[in-house]
Amino acid sequence: MKGSLTNLNDSFSHFIGTENYYSHLIRTCVFTDGVKAMADQYQAYWLIDVVVSYQMTKRIKCIPFQIWRINSTEGKAVIEMRQDIDQPVLVRQQIPFTDFPEGSLQLYCIDDSECKVILLPSEY
After folding, report:
1. Is there a domain that residue 99 lies in?
2. Of 3, 34, 37, 95, which residue is 20 to 30 A from 22 by alpha carbon distance?
3. Over its length of 124 residues, how does the chain's per-residue pLDDT go in tens digits?
4. Residue 7 lies in a domain
5. Are the CB atoms for 108 and 47 separated by under 8 Å?
6. Which domain holds residue 87?
7. pTM here?
């Protein structure tokens, strides 16, 4: 991947909190207005599915704060998850073909009282 990617979160920085939570088909996860806007704009509900799918594994679902990042360039992408910025990568998934826009986007997945919540950093 190229060195400096466009920060795609900048397009969604006006989302500072959420009024709605949207249920995923897997009822143990919800996502916010900002994540829904991102998924609508980029046709990227599949990205939410990737984050949710890893919540089904014991090793990942027990982590209360997760940082997910997608780096996309030249029609390919890499999705990574860490516990924190300075922590090692715990999940790395190659996406061999994508129409996701070139750049980098970050999501958080956090524990709430009854479920996992996927949100944008500006909504945290």
Report:
1. yes
2. 95
3. 446 899 999 999 999 999 999 999 888 899 999 999 999 999 999 999 999 999 999 999 999 999 999 999 999 999 999 999 999 999 999 999 999 999 999 999 999 988 999 999 999 9
4. no
5. no
6. 21-123
7. 0.94
